[in-house]
Amino acid sequence: MGAAALAMMFTATAPVASAAADKSSSGPDTREVSVAAWTPTTTLNNGPIRECYAAGCAEVWRPGPGQTVRWSHYAYNSSGNRWYYVQYVAGGPRPHTFYGWIYCGNVTAPC
Predict the structure, then answer these.
(1) Among 5, 18, 88, 107, which residue's CB has the most CB atoms within a 10 Å radius?
(2) Which tens digit of pLDDT belongs to each residue from 55-110?
(3) Which alpha helices (H) appear in the chain, and where do they start and end?
(4) How far apart are the C-alpha atoms of 100 and 32, rounded to whole Å?
């Protein structure tokens, strides 16, 4: 699934409060996740933002260390690793916003 399709999936807010309350999701069913707020965190290294929450997924963008990304929720993959769904704004004269998943070990947000 492409980054654009992922971004479209997360534009609506679902009325289910249980997953939205702690911004977590235990599986790929994204209908239970609210994207009402984005929480800032900082990258620790140059770990990539990926199209899905697994190391084998295609890379969307690779922010450098110390960059600010904002996360809306997290999910656990089949290996039990936490990944955050993030947005990253690359600067310049024509900024572009990237959306995707980053492994929790690559950001200051908790694992």
Answers:
(1) 107
(2) 999 999 999 999 999 999 999 999 999 999 999 999 878 899 999 999 999 999 99
(3) 3-9, 17-22
(4) 18
Buried b (16+ CB within 10 A) or exposed e, 12-21: eeeeeeebbe
Question: For the chain, first and last CA: distance in Å?
Answer: 25
Residues 89, 59 contacting (CB under 8 angstroms): no
Enter the tokens of residue 68: 């600010």
pTM, entire model: 0.68
pLDDT digits (tens, 9 = 90+) for 19-43: 333 444 444 444 444 456 999 999 9
Q: Which residues contact 63 (CB under 8 A, 6 or more apart)?
A: 43, 46, 49, 69, 88, 90
- Helices vs. strands in the chain: H and E counts, helices first: 2, 7
**How, if at all, do strands 68-76 and 59-61 pair?**
unpaired
